[in-house]
Here is the input.
Amino acid sequence: MYAIVCTGGKQYRVTEGEVITVERIPGEVGDAVELKDILLVKGEEDLRIGAPTVEGALIQGQIVRQDRGKKIIVFKHKRRKGYRKKQGHRQDLTWLRIQKIEMGGNEVPSSALSEEEHGRLLMLDIISAQANPSLTPSEEEHAGGE
Here is the structure.
């Protein structure tokens, strides 16, 4: 089982027992953490895709370490103008051990669609893209009302 979770503005693919490095999460070493911004959960048999997040899904973890990342150098300059600026930056980081991934039981898994229905939906997407190639899928929804 794995999940894709969003924390600190970044997305991570996590499995149970894995240790991941994320941007700083408030708390002390040993504290329990719950991540609720889950975009996708893949179980043994089913796949749940959120729109935008999976309702009821939850990832439980524990803070293993709070530290700072490696120093990076930010160097800005403008040629022929004598302008140079050098700065260093160290990001605050948290190491999380993923203990449990819960799927949430209220949703219909995407595998509930038959292959025929999946194919029909895919063909509709392809046909609509060919009919108006200049529009992205999100623009197609808005273009119909005009």
